[in-house]
Amino acid sequence: MQGTHQPTPRPAAYPVTDRTVPTRAAQKASYDKDLVHAILDEGYVCHLGFVRDGAPVVLPTLYGRVGEVLYVHGSTGSRPLRMAGQTDPGLPVCLTVTHVDGLVLARSAFHHSINYRSVVVHGLAYDVTDPEEKRAALDAVVDQVVPGRVADSRPANKKELAATAVIRLDLNEVSAKTRTGGVNDEPEDLALPHWAGVLPLRKGYGTPLPEADLAPGTPVPDYLAAL
Amino acid sequence: MQGTHQPTPRPAAYPVTDRTVPTRAAQKASYDKDLVHAILDEGYVCHLGFVRDGAPVVLPTLYGRVGEVLYVHGSTGSRPLRMAGQTDPGLPVCLTVTHVDGLVLARSAFHHSINYRSVVVHGLAYDVTDPEEKRAALDAVVDQVVPGRVADSRPANKKELAATAVIRLDLNEVSAKTRTGGVNDEPEDLALPHWAGVLPLRKGYGTPLPEADLAPGTPVPDYLAAL
């Protein structure tokens, strides 16, 4: 309406760049922020790539998301975290999160596939030095693994914070890829006698195993039972 | 015994290199071939890292193991596969496989962790051009996902083989990392009222979903039911 203040709409998608435009299967790529956030929020283990002496290194590590920022933490001796602190203006990284949802079994070996959702983030990782941001980042990583856990644990003390390094990676250059649905067999293969379909994958949790030295009577917290 | 022929023992471990010696948590690293093979054989999705224009790229993809060789396949248009075919003597890659076994919930935020098993392979990826090796590699990838499936599907034809690129990565520079067991809390934290222990993770399969156009009466194969 004329004269009415319109808030600037929050962009719903990440910009497409040379690094995030796919070379193939373009129909599977998405830059939708809500989809990217949902995929990231369902996980807590990423694969972090960086370059050392010209060669790639890929390490599994925990992450936490706070709005449009991802945090990764580790020992101050960890190589990528140390490198991020020593690289100006930041360490080039690629952070990837993948969920496998099902196995796609086609009649032809060629058309076998998996159903999955993945997010790939490109950018520069910056060493987090501000104590408040660092503390919030560590909380985000713990709550990413078990939502609600931060409020039910002893916060990091100064010595522990000093022993921990944190990097931040902004969600600027991001793409999601997904495959869903059934088999794409060739028409001439449909009469073959092989079973064809999708085998869904299930993830879940077993029974919580309390520590032997846990105070007797300590109940399993609601946020664990809810997982 | 003197005079008795002794076969050369198969080396039980990968050599330690500058790239596979850990910077920290050294007690978690292993170079044992049997452990590495077991971790690789339990999975079928890896995260493949390579360098493009000086920056790292990490993509999830399927793999198959044949002895001391890993194969990755994809479209001939796939960037890392295309790059491997154009790079002499091969494309530097890092291939990582990770299994998450449990969430480790300590009384202190700092000592939270996960139980996991991972394998990191460094090396050069070579474009596979020999038709027989290529076909065997594709079989290995399919059987890695569902053992026994290759024998129950239509083999790739010439056109499909031509549309598929395969790279090989030899298992030379390899390390495994694992964390198992319970919580490592500080002695002074043991009396805190927080629940502490391990939440095991479970992976499994749902009910197979047959394609709508599957011939009526096609049974679910034994190798699927056995998963």
Automatic annotation (TrEMBL), chains A, B:
<dbReference type="InterPro" id="IPR024747">
    <property type="entry name" value="Pyridox_Oxase-rel"/>
</dbReference>
<dbReference type="Pfam" id="PF12900">
    <property type="entry name" value="Pyridox_ox_2"/>
</dbReference>
<feature type="region of interest" description="Disordered">
    <location>
        <begin position="1"/>
        <end position="21"/>
    </location>
</feature>
<dbReference type="InterPro" id="IPR012349">
    <property type="entry name" value="Split_barrel_FMN-bd"/>
</dbReference>
<protein>
    <recommendedName>
        <fullName>Flavin-nucleotide-binding protein</fullName>
    </recommendedName>
</protein>
